[in-house]
Amino acid sequence: MNPDLDTLARAVARHGFMVRGGFHPEPADGVPGNPGTLVMVGNAGPAMWEAFRAAAPEPAAPNPLDAWTRTVLAGVARDLGASVLFPFDGPPYLPFQRWAMRGDAVFPSPIGPLIHPTYGLWHAYRAALLFAGRIPLPAPAAAASPCAGCAAKPCLSACPVSALAPGAYDVPACVAFLDGPAGTGCLSLGCAARRACPVGRDHVYAPAQAGFHMAHFRATNR
Hints:
Layout: H1 5-13, E1 18-23, E2 37-44, H2 47-55, H3 64-80, E3 83-85, H4 96-103, E4 107-108, E5 114-115, E6 123-131, E7 164-165, E8 168-169, H5 171-179, H6 184-189, H7 192-196, H8 207-220
Antiparallel strand pairs: 1-2, 2-6, 3-6, 4-5, 7-8
């Protein structure tokens, strides 16, 4: 029997994750296995990071956060009778951003990542749980993109090397900047363009979390 959404939310919250919406897949969604329900699991704020650090995962893993996420959420899926998919498995990679927009109030931002009206750019989708049956789901909250009313769009001018533009990301320029002495701020506090966004300021990652993600990004894109 499929769990209800509250039971599912409690199961992932024990590990610092959140239910981030869901939908009943149709063939055009490209969800493997033709499940009855897809539920997105992700994070916002410090809870997931704190759970991850408390678990003290094996640091030798290529990406210990992904390895820990896989272990934890595969266990949750097994307990709930679900299968699980991850955005970091690939290539080819699954269309997690498209799925997120099907089930959550998120929108493309000018610099690429999805923006949430409450969390801003400080959130992520870490897995999708697939259930054979149809779990009742609330409709996504009615919301508009916060970028639509943002005339200044400081995210587009905050990058020190102009690596970000609508529909484009100059990854080599970004990584070269991070490798130099001027890149210390982005490495330790997170992407300057992301930090420039005024939305979701209460959910900005702490330096330890931001630094972890930036160090992994630099290491995997050299």
